[in-house]
Structures are given as structure tokens and as C-alpha cells.
């Protein structure tokens, strides 16, 4: 009987830990993901709990330093008390590792408004309370290395 309870306890904890590894943005609409930008720090923690880890992101200038809250599948860049940038592993049907051709195919006609460079696609998102951009960075092999949603005026 003790062995059964022990195994049941192990199964319970293993299952609950595995469930926490699901990316936060899984199953969310683009509009729900857009709402991440502008969240107050306390709102972020109320919605998603404590981060998996916290890091510093050093900018070129002193004022560009950010605190990064890292969750599974998404990183939140915080300046003062607000999220100003989000780094996704997958969003808008795009995932890290995808090719540039696949990204352009997924974006379709919306890519017409985008700035398309050799190492990035930077697309404005309209219809929001403040300006938002979706930026997809590519590595030297032409695969997605990072996907950012951010406020360009911040």
C-alpha cells in the first residue's frame, strides 16, 4: 500500500511539473498576445505567477537596460514597471527555426507593410492603443532566431 501511495505521489508531481512546461502563449489569439505589451509588473505576476528565471538584458546605452522575466516559451522585457517587449518561441504561426520563405508565406499579404531586410522582417501592427511591431530575426542560415513583439516608441 505504501508503494502504491509513493508511486501515486511521484506520478502527481511529475504530471504537474510537465504541465508547467507548456508555453504561455499556446492557444492564445494574436490580440491576447498583443495585450502582453503594456502589462504592469504586478499584472504579469498575477496572470502567470513567478517567472522561471530572471535575467538582465544590457542595451547599448545605460538607459536601455531591461529586466527579463523568463517563462517557458516567452520572455517579457520590463522597463521600470511595464512590459515593453515580448520574445516568443512561437507566435503568428511562426516558430524559431522556420525558414524566411515559410515566414513570408505565413504572413501573406500582411508582409506588404513590413520592412524586409536580409536578417529580419519588421512589421507594424495596427489597431492598437499604441504602436506595436512584430520583428522576426534570421540567423546567417536564413532561419528564425528570434521573434519579438514590441513598442517601437519605448
Describe this structure in words.
The protein is of the alpha+beta class and 154 residues long. 26% of the residues lie in helices and 32% in strands. The chain is built from 4 helices and 10 strands; from the N terminus they run H-H-H-E-E-E-E-E-E-H-E-E-E-E. It has helices at 2-20, 30-34, 41-48, 100-107; strands at 53-57, 66-71, 74-79, 82-88, 90-91, 94-95, 115-116, 120-125, 132-138, 144-150. The strands form 2 sheets. Strands 1-2-3-4-10-9-8-7 form an 8-stranded antiparallel beta sheet, with no helix packed on it. A hairpin with a 6-residue loop joins strand 8 (120-125) and strand 9 (132-138). It is globular. The N and C termini lie far apart (60 Å). The model is unreliable at 1-21 (pLDDT under 50).
How would you concisely characterize the structure shown here?
The chain has 154 residues and is an alpha+beta fold. It has helices at 2-20, 30-34, 41-48, 100-107; strands spanning 53-57, 66-71, 74-79, 82-88, 90-91, 94-95, 115-116, 120-125, 132-138, 144-150.
- Treating each run of at least 4 consecutive H or I residues as one helix, how many helices? 4
Q: Output the structural class.
A: alpha+beta
- Biggest β-sheet: count, sense, barrel? 8 strands, antiparallel
Percent of sequence in beta strands: 25-35%
From the alpha-carbon coordinates, what is the Rg to the nearest angstrom? 18 Å
Strand ordering within the main sheet: 1-2-3-4-10-9-8-7
Taking all residues together, what is the mean pLDDT?
84
Specify the helix fraction band: 25-40%
Shape designation: globular
Q: How many distinct beta strands?
A: 10
Termini Cα gap: 60 Å
H/E element string? HHHEEEEEEHEEEE
Low-confidence stretches: 1-21
